[in-house]
Design a protein that fits this description.
binds NADP nicotinamide-adenine-dinucleotide phosphate; alpha/beta; six-stranded parallel beta sheet
Length: 271
Amino acid sequence: MIVGTIQRIALRTPHDHGEEHPHYPGPVRILILGGTSEARELAAQLAAAGTDVISSLAGRVSEPRLPAGHIRIGGFGGADGLADYLKAKGITRVIDATHPFAATITANAAKAATTAGVPLLVLRRPAWDADPSWDTVPDIQAAAAAVRTWHGDTVFLTTGRRDLAVFAADDGHRFLVRTVDPPDGPVPPRMTLILDRGPYTVESETRLMREHGVGLLVTKNSGGPMTEAKLHAAQDLAIGVVMVERPPLPPGTAIVAATVAEAARWAVQPG
Ligand code: NAP
């Protein structure tokens, strides 16, 4: 196994396809499509074991938490661009460790891996177990429709800044919105914005919801422990939950792992 140098690559602007990693031949070169805590954990494990690993980030967050190993930032230019990248960089395996709601890059990864003939594994943390008290909806538009018919006052919206536009026409509710970076598109007219990122505790979530008089929580079923505390706080405070279901994986997705350990084993297994 080639032992790659563990180094941090200078941040590049999105869509900068410059050379960010020396191309040297080796039996194993892993590409992790990242942007999640699991992707960072996986990169740390593989890099620490001396595996040649490149993490790819979309470049959406202004100050991303950077994984260990090599890093590239920005889109590939669709599935064809990603397939070209896999071939050009001699990638031997791809791990799609993106967020369960990042459906476009997941679809692109599936197509690109097939085109380039590179094995692909999808690493997906398990969804939160459904609770019968939740109003489970298929997508963010359905969540906005559910909120419109809710007769209370304050909604806690944790679905991310890019999904705020669908709530922008709702002037019947007050919205407590929590995002990592400030929104750059349409937002609800009556909005209190908090910039923060997890992990959160049940205590802090309970305090926040109490302070703002939250009556309804809207969240995606991201799964995982980092942002789970809000569900316990909502339950304790008898606050309603609108839960957006995950988009399906692309048809024919062959290999799915639920844990970083499984993905790490797959990454370096022979054959
Ligand atoms: P998306 O809608 O599935 O992807 C849109 C485009 O962004 C893709 O077509 C691709 O551009 C680029 N892209 C996405 N992830 C990339 C990656 N890891 N490396 C390189 N390019 C990437 O993605 P999204 O929902 O905007 O999420 C963007 C990133 O944020 C993902 O890496 C995801 O893991 C992370 N994230 C998303 C959420 C969420 O709720 N969606 C939450 C937390 C973290 P090209 O077509 O040009 O290649």
